[in-house]
Amino acid sequence: MSSNIQISAAQLSRLVGLPDAPVLVDVRTAEDFAADPRLLPAAQRRSHEDVAGWANVFAGHKLVICCQRGQKLSEGVAAWLRHEGIAAETLTGGFEAWREAGLPLVDVGRLPARDGAGRTVWVTRARPKVDRIACPWLIRRFVDPAAVFLFVTPSEVAAVAERFGATPFDIDGVFWSHRGERCSFDTMIAELGLSTPALDRLAAIVRAADTARLDDVPQAAGFLAASLGLSRMFRDDLAQLEAGMLLYDAFYRWCRDATEETHNWPSVPAGAEARP
Fold this sequence. Notes:
Blueprint: E1 6-7, H1 9-13, E2 23-26, H2 30-35, E3 38-39, E4 44-45, H3 51-54, E5 62-66, H4 72-83, E6 87-91, H5 94-100, E7 106-107, E8 121-125, H6 131-142, E9 148-152, H7 157-164, E10 167-168, H8 184-192, H9 197-210, H10 220-233, H11 237-258
Parallel strand pairs: 1-6, 2-4, 2-5, 5-6, 8-9, 8-10
Antiparallel strand pairs: 3-7
């Protein structure tokens, strides 16, 4: 029998990556985590031992709690959170069920060190167009919702990265950048273990738009036009990023759910009578 305080891996997978996705909290023991140091997309690590100390951080949010098998640790943490008035479900079958379903897991070893507030910090060139919006979208939706992005003068990216402990991306000569015909968005999907049919389809659009190969994918020209339009609408790069998040959310949902849907006008063929 299903429970209103549990969610299956299949159900949760439909929520991951969406702007209103629940907060995912991994409460596996240190031993279990060391045996497989990967996380569900956008999940963060917390200890079950001090849930009373961190519960209020998530006030007003909906949480899904994951332990190794979806038993005592996640059940106890979720119950405690609900006691504090926080909506919390457990992942049925826990980490093992997610892994056995073949769903994406983020390779934590690939992630940069976090700052004192637990956030990853990234730096790239100012005035983003395609890849420099795509990568932050991917990180915010699938890796670290609280990630910080610094947009600076191109010549200063390396120095800012060094002085502020930020990870550079989408510039020449760094790890998180173009590789051959693949763009930085491709690199992040591959290195972080996030390949899914929907993200791979979106990556093809981003790649074609970012590398001026608009004939490769039918959607690329419109995607580039929207991206360039956003870059003209906003002088503030962070404001442009926030607006661009919606664009990528929409294209991701199309890639995942709507590629077979068409639309035409008029809805009633010529000469046919409309039914009352």
